[in-house]
Amino acid sequence: MGLELLKPEIWSEQLLRRLNDLLLFRQVCTTEFEREITGYGDVIKINEIGTITVNSYTASSTSALTIQTLQDAQKLLKIDRAKYTAFEIDRQDYAAIKPKVIDSAREQAAWSLANEVDEYIAGLYGQAGIAVGGSATTGVDVTSTNVLKYIALTAQKHDEMNTPGLGRWMVVPPWFAHKLTMSKIVLDTDNSGVLSSGKLGSYYGIDIYVSNNVPHLSSTDRACILSGYKGSIALATQVLYTAQMETIEYGFKTLVKSLMVYGAKVLRPNNLGILYADYTAEAS
Length: 284
Known about the structure:
Blueprint: H1 8-22, E1 43-46, E2 75-78, E3 81-90, H2 99-122, E4 130-133, E5 140-142, H3 147-160, E6 168-172, H4 174-183, H5 191-197, E7 199-203, E8 206-210, E9 222-229, E10 233-248, E11 251-266, E12 273-279
Parallel strand pairs: 4-12, 5-12, 6-8
Antiparallel strand pairs: 1-2, 3-11, 6-9, 7-8, 9-12, 10-11
Helix pairs in contact: 1-2
């Protein structure tokens, strides 16, 4: 029964499902291009329409209309990242293998792979086109008394850039989330959702997510906090898997290998915000 769970099609399907559950940034990225992946090295062409020109018109005009030829604004999503996990199971242990053990291994593999992807996406903050506050050299001091100000400012900046209101998000580090909790401003109606998805709650039309993968600049408490909408960043992942018997020096073992390929692309930098926030101790 336990070894049935190691069959390639079963392992791959269940590992991918668990991986997707654990990927926090999958929840805030568009994954609509994922089905186009066939393997590592793929390049997905994302076609968009360029700017439409507006011309003046008068009823007395006899001139011909100015006809515009639509231009493609094409972006490329490259599947140029690959990570793997590998572990072995001794043949002598086959009889003792239980589904619970294999499920635990799959859980650990999925967590490790998901963590790699989340760290990669969080590191794209340098491509954000909306400066919400602070800079890499000077961050804004955040406490429970002013944290609301920066959530509101984030919403304002996105409003000014016409960021779609549906699916707006912000991913914050745990210390920032604690400031929000202390200020008692986060509106949460689904505690189970918080525990499973990393979503703390929402305010000003922005869903607030918590992650330990929010980058902090070297040797500082300065967090690089991203915000956007589900369309600012594209993400595509695929899990490849093989399980095979291999001859080891002292006997037979099953080598369980999982290969994940993925890519991420900032599609709309003008709808991606960055807040450089410094952890600040509360007044005593």
